[in-house]
User: What shape does this take?
Amino acid sequence: MVDIQEYLADRRQVVERGLKQYMLPATGDFSVHVQAMRYSLFVGGKRVRPILCLAAAGCVSDDPEIDTVLMPAACALECIHTYSLIHDDLPAMDDDDLRRGQPTCHKRFGEAEAILAGDGLLTYGFELLSNTGLPGPDGATRLRLVACLAGAAGSLGMVGGQFLDIDSEDKDVAFERLQAIHRAKTGALITAAVVMGGMGAGADSRQLEALTAYGTAVGLAFQIVDDLLDVTASTEQLGKTAGSDAEHGKATYPAFFGIEKTRTLAQEAVDKACSALASFDDRAEPLRALAQYIYSRTC
Amino acid sequence: MVDIQEYLADRRQVVERGLKQYMLPATGDFSVHVQAMRYSLFVGGKRVRPILCLAAAGCVSDDPEIDTVLMPAACALECIHTYSLIHDDLPAMDDDDLRRGQPTCHKRFGEAEAILAGDGLLTYGFELLSNTGLPGPDGATRLRLVACLAGAAGSLGMVGGQFLDIDSEDKDVAFERLQAIHRAKTGALITAAVVMGGMGAGADSRQLEALTAYGTAVGLAFQIVDDLLDVTASTEQLGKTAGSDAEHGKATYPAFFGIEKTRTLAQEAVDKACSALASFDDRAEPLRALAQYIYSRTC
Assistant: This one.
């Protein structure tokens, strides 16, 4: 059994070290711009996507250096996730003042500066994946990682999902639409994190299929829990404004199903994620524990 | 001698066909989002960056299919350029209502939608480069193209330059700072267009060095001319608001040197660009003509 709290604390340290190592330094002509990027990247965060990426890699590879090899890819995922938060928080989008208990990037640096900090982090994700001076898998696999991340983060993935989300505010939304939003907005990047870990560690197609199914189910669970916490947790607990979904007239799982049924659906998604890992050995224990951890946040 | 008008008309048709072929279709769940991306991509534009990319490729390769091989990369450059215009035009940045004589993306689709259209186009540029189902050079070269584009478009290139530009409004700016802004904001992506064309067509390191020098000089000429046109041309001629630089208190070449001296500096940059091509044969004629064409816009 994996002690999930201990595991997460250790993994977060590893990821923080990687981010510090690979993030641009705030020096030279562009120092204020890079400061804005670093502010949002280092203001905190659970580092769920890099941790999932490294856990998936550890699930298919025995290479003791696999964390090192995949770290730039793991950092790229966090850069892309952070950019999406910066842009989502903008006045024209969710207009949030708080993120991780601190002023959002545009509150701290200004709106134009925050848009550019987001653009910079998004682009830097692809720099990290394509820089052959950094650790990483062979060139062909690096290119597959670029394609996987671009597809998940782009217009038919995260960006498209955010568009649908904004576009659906204060509208009656069918459950199918809510699912499409969740799959694209949150699910795609979480699935990519898991798949990129596997891909970068040399997973075969059967393993990648299982990891994709796991990632899809975990992504769904993650979003359901996020919807739930927006209703049940305080602003202090969340580090961002609670009740923001209702305020923006957003469709959510609790709005469709109520709190109890939503909890059940989250548990079902977690169970499905774990079933997808049935063919993996003990090396998949961290992935199993991570899925359960996501559910535990609902309690 | 290349008839530049005829050449440009032909090349624009080729690039338009490529963009139509490779751009996402506006169908399915994300159709409105993709419409916003397509609106800005197809509202017009000189297609300078894709044309430079293909011209540089033609300068080092005799392959009659070289346009086809490099077209996804050429389209990626235009996607990145278009995203940068969408974000630059936003209310929080230059707050422009007109672009290419039409309403800007946020005027037409809304501000959140325009931010996301930009994010989508930026990400799609990397999808085009990394999609091995599309034409392109070998995998290792594709990865180099990703690295080149990400570096040029990112925080130490275009995005950083835009940040410096915004950050320098209404401030006394030294000439060195203006140069740094221009190099990063405009020069980096234009240089990348030329270098990516050469790289994708198999240029050796000596050729890449010459193309880099050409791209750097052409990028400078381009920005000087842009500064000049903002003073000397009408809104109708530009298709965007004339006099926008002065209104935003931006440092420009004409503000430093006056109009006549600025024209001379543009011509010097063009001469420098052409000198850089001295070692190339007649296949470099289009690149030489393109440099002269950039200067001709000042007259």
Remarks:
- Residues 4-296 of chain A form a domain with the Farnesyl Diphosphate Synthase fold (CATH 1.10.600.10).
